[in-house]
Amino acid sequence: xxxxxxxxxxSTHGIGYGIAKAxxxxxxxxxxxxxxxxxxxxxxxxQLTECYFVQSDLSKIDxxxxxxxxxxxxxxxxxxxxxxxxxxxxxxxxxxxxESFNKTFNLxxxxxxxTSQEFVKKISNNQNNASIICIGSSNSxxxxxxxxxxxxx
Length: 153
Prior knowledge:
Number of strands: 5
Order of helices and strands: EHEHEHEHEH
Largest sheet: 5 strands, parallel
Strand order of the largest sheet: 3-2-1-4-5
Structural class: alpha/beta
């Protein structure tokens, strides 16, 4: 992974942090992301590799653009985008409202789509094997009670 540059969304804790740490241990330069502060993830990962943090809300189009722009500026390129950011809200089916539905789909679906679109726009002609990895959930195969929005996203 030497000289590889990776941008991982939703990566300051949980699965995303684990993915970032795995890439860091293999020697990739990385950008981590969250809509919240990094909670120490940046300092820890910088002990393993060159790492940057971009705070950006990927449920909004300008957040997708800013993440990819800043990641490209900090790393010089992005070879791999890992779409991991997502949200989960326990809500029984009868209580789902438009606001919570939009919150879930804006991040879990639109976030993946528009972050990927911005990434593809930045791939240079001489850049070989650029890739997008989209992290999913077992909930897409077997629904869970009170997680209809997450399951369908």
